[in-house]
Amino acid sequence: MNSSFQKITAVVGLALSFGLVSCKENSLVSPDIPQVTSTEATNNLISPDPFKQYTLTKHGQATLTYQADGRLKQVMHGLGTLANPTEYTEYSYDNLSIKSTRTMGAGKKLEITYLLGPNTGRVYESIEKHYTYYIKGMSLTQLHWLYEYDNKGYLKTRRKKNASTDRSEYTFNAAGDLSKVTVYDIYDVVVQEVTFAYDQPSNDILTDKLPLYSSWATYPDSYLPIFGKTSKHLVKRITQKEFRGVNPVVDRFFAYTLNADGYVKEEQEFEMGTAALVAVRPYEYKVRTMGIQ
């Protein structure tokens, strides 16, 4: 099957999406965007396809490995150096809880324990332990978060347990896609707003076959399937507004190359104003045809 190329001009966010073979060339408005292969396109790191099962093994610089039962075992976050050793996140599972531990070299950086609802499998509380190392010792900071969902299973709020005004609020549109994340500080003041668009620069909306939680939102883990429903479509643009700091607005669009089955092979991130290429992220999978080992 031949991939078709599609020019994109304005925007896009972070996600994987794809499909059968829907591709057409769009005229660019401004700025001029390079051609990108597009095809059209359930949820998670392992697809529920009845004929061909895809398991995500590489996402950008991250390499994912799994336990024998299919649960996520480890994420290696790129290749390190002597000065900056490779970081790893390792996962362990207990009855109604998951623990993720992120280490760099011999030092533990972050440990998160997620408590899961017995009927939903969704996290309702998490405990974070942040480790900071000094020449003469180490300090530990601990944070507790609570999670609330709507009646459809989408995350509504992630808030500090002991400071409820310190929170992130999530808005999903009628199509089931994350459209906005609003972050408040302890004084109940908005400090960040991130918006997501799925139909720009044209109405070429693509279904996401193996969605992750966006790293542009405040999900603590992109890979664990415990934060409620994910977006259904491939995000095309993300605009992040900071109401403090020196970088008030970050505006990016993304283009994707899809394989013949509609899964992302490569994601390209561009600066909205200049169309400058910011990053290229490859995706790799373990593919198994059902019925064939």
From TrEMBL:
It comes from Spirosoma profusum. This is DUF4595 domain-containing protein. It comes from the Bacteria. The lineage of its organism: Bacteria, Pseudomonadati, Bacteroidota, Cytophagia, Cytophagales.
